[in-house]
Design a protein that fits this description.
Low-confidence stretches: 11-26, 56-75
Strand content: 15-25%
Number of helices: 6
Largest sheet: 6 strands, mixed
Mean pLDDT: 74
Shape: elongated
């Protein structure tokens, strides 16, 4: 009995009763030798018992390491996909508060960045689309790399003409008779207008370019046409004109032998229409002729069509 008690109280491990002892002889001598071997630690369990006991010990060590407060004495690593275990509810709430603080800070920083970037982004949008009357940039023939004179091309002479309506007491003349430009070259010209009356008058100008085949290639960068021009009584002003001829004119066969261009401006007294917009105070056929559309049949205005429909009904 003392041997049995010593075998089960050993600190190394509690060995299970060997399954092979059931097949031993039931003689007292053999049983005594087996028990004596267990007591001395000379007996070892079979390999399958060692594997089962090692796996149980590793699981027991991981559970103890996850719940103990101090460092784990076991060197076993946690199994893949194991979730970290928090010791208390306060730690869970602290982790959630940290995550909430990080997300809130990120949203605030993003909102501040969008606020500072709103103005330049709006300007870029307006410049790209022409929204709110903003001049478009980087559009087709107005790109900077296209405004370069073609040195080996033939110069084109641009003549300037000026006319005024009979109802407008202004004197309107060009300050130069002509200029010679290369395709792609920008040129600056001036007109002079003077109000010869004793009243303030608002005028508006139209223009046309002849011959017609050059019109798609004649581009104005700065112009006073189709805009309100108010002159005080007796006032005299200079009106600038910045223009260029697109270099694509060299690829048009119809403009290959073109040497002269005529640019004409006509000033009218301005009036406001039903929508409150300024327009020339002259009959439509006169206004269309000043723009070079005298030989074309124009569609009637919406007001004239409505009057005709109401009269017929």
């Amino acid at each position: 009995m003392n041997l049995l008690r010593a075998a089960f109280l050993r600190p190394a491990h509690r060995a299970q009763w060997p399954a092979s002892t059931s097949h031993l002889s039931t003689s007292s001598g053999q049983a005594y030798r087996s028990l004596h071997a267990i007591a001395r630690g000379a007996w070892r369990p079979p390999p399958h018992c060692l594997r089962r006991e090692a796996s149980c010990f590793s699981r027991f060590s991981w559970r103890n390491a996850s719940t103990s407060s101090g460092p784990s004495p076991s060197s076993n690593t946690p199994p893949p996909g194991a979730r970290p275990q928090f010791k208390s509810r306060e730690e869970v709430y602290a982790a959630r508060n940290r995550s909430l603080l990080m997300y809130t800070t990120a949203v605030i920083v993003f909102g501040i960045g969008v606020t500072y970037a709103a103005v330049p982004l709006y300007r870029m949008f307006c410049a790209a689309t022409g929204f709110a009357g903003t001049p478009k940039v980087g559009m087709g023939k107005f790109e900077a790399d296209r405004l370069v004179p073609v040195e080996n091309a033939k110069r084109i002479k641009v003549h300037f003409n000026a006319d005024t309506s009979d109802a407008l007491p202004w004197s309107f003349i060009p300050q130069q008779k002509f200029v010679s430009v290369l395709p792609g070259e920008t040129s600056l010209a001036f007109y002079k207008a003077k109000n010869n009356s004793d009243k303030d008058i608002i005028g508006i100008a139209t223009y046309n370019v002849t011959p017609d085949r050059i019109a798609p290639y004649f581009a104005k960068v700065e112009c006073f046409c189709f805009e309100e021009q108010k002159l005080l009584a007796g006032e005299e002003v200079d009106m600038p004109l910045l223009f260029f001829i697109d270099r694509d004119v060299l690829d048009d066969p119809s403009c290959r032998n073109l040497d002269d261009i005529v640019l004409s401006y006509t000033f009218f007294r301005a009036r406001r229409n039903a929508q409150g917009h300024l327009e020339p105070d002259a009959p439509d056929d006169v206004v269309q002729a000043s723009q070079g559309f005298a030989e074309y049949e124009m569609a009637p205005k919406v007001e004239d069509r409505r009057k005709g429909e109401s009269a017929s009904s």
